[in-house]
Amino acid sequence: MKGVTEMKYIDQIIIQEKDAVGMSAAEVYKCQIEDQVVYLKRIDVKYSQTTYSVKREAEVMLWLDGKLNVPKVVEYGKKENNEYLIMSEIKGKSIDDFAEEPMQYITYLADAIKLLHAVDVSNCPFSSQVDMRLEELDYLLKNNLADTDTDNWEDSTEFTDPQELYSWLCDNKPQEELVFSHGDISNLMIQDDEIFFFDLARCGLADKWLDISMCVREIRNYYHNPDYENLFYDMLGMEPDYEKIDYYLLLDEMF
Questions:
Q1: How far apart are CA 164 and CA 186, in angstroms?
Q2: Is pLDDT of 239 > 70?
Q3: Active site residue 35
Q4: Span 112-139, mean pLDDT?
Q5: Sheet holding 188-191, edge to edge
Q6: Given 11, 120, 161, 184, which residue is catalytic?
Q7: Residue 39: which of 50, 49, 48, 30 has the closest Cα?
Q8: DSSP letter at 71?
Q9: Is the Cβ–Cβ distance between 136 and 51 less than 8 Å?
Q10: Beta-carbon neighbour count of residue 45 at 10 Å?
């Protein structure tokens, strides 16, 4: 993979602490190499053909270098039954730290959407389109890797059977308006009022409403007030497409 160093750091890395916040299938550790703070992300190779792959994430990060604020790839490799990625640290505050300031929080989400939509996708090699994601979900379901615990699903989700939900998603695919998408956009850091993106394995070409729906979910969960959701649409200068928003929220349930 162009731009990634040969395997030389993985055996030198000093693990400081494990990240216990994320819900991804990957393990993430804050680490140190000599005097540099880095992050190690690793995942079982059984996820290598999915958007959980850290190889895919490393490739996305390299492609996005100079296009968006993202971590730097230090090293990518495979060791034993794991893919691993070592990346630079992003300093700043998590966007969740601004949740008690609704105007600021929603402004950052809207600005993040605008930054993503401004990325030139004419030569983007990554797809996160519906057909690809449904194929991925089929693989996850068949290999018992999907989140089929309905206790983890949103209260608004009416489905109670994973296969029924999967079939509905296949039968109700929306018309896509393609932009560059993050795919899990709550993963933002704010540094000196600049937005930094991380957890990038799900990035690629996708419908513009995919990321918007993820933002809507966060706004609804935090504020329980439709005025804030409407403010978000106003900041984007868009009328809400609730049919697409509902679809993409359901698509995300088993990931």
A1: 27
A2: yes
A3: no
A4: 97
A5: 93-94, 188-191, 194-197
A6: 184
A7: 30
A8: P
A9: yes
A10: 13
DSSP state of 96: G
> Is 167:254 a contact under the CB 8 Å cutoff?
no
Q: Which amino acid is at 22?
A: G
For residue 32, the SS3 value is: strand
Angstrom CA distances, 88 to 72, 144, 199, 248, stand at 5, 32, 12, 31
Strands (E) in the chain, as ranges, are 14-18, 27-33, 36-44, 73-79, 82-88, 93-94, 178-181, 188-191, 194-197, 204-207
**Angle at Cα 114 formed by Cα 113 and Cα 120, nearest 5°?**
105
Q: Can you list the positions of beta strands (E) in 55-207?
A: 73-79, 82-88, 93-94, 178-181, 188-191, 194-197, 204-207
Instruction: Determine the Cα–Cα distance for residues 197 and 68; give it in Å rounded to an integer.
Output: 8
Confidence at 21, pLDDT banded by 50, 70, 90: low
> Tokens for 31?
């680490």
Q: Report the distance separating Cα 190 and Cα 232, nearest Å.
A: 18
Q: Using the 8-state DSSP alphabet, how is residue 46 labeled? A: G
- At 85, the amino acid letter reads L
Average pLDDT over residues 32-36: 88
H or E segment at 168? helix 162-171
The gap from C-alpha 93 to its chain's centroid, in whole angstroms, comes to 17
Give me the chain's average pLDDT, please: 92
pLDDT tens column, 139-163: 999 999 999 988 888 888 889 899 9
DSSP category for residue 186: T
Q: Does the global pTM surpass 0.90?
A: yes
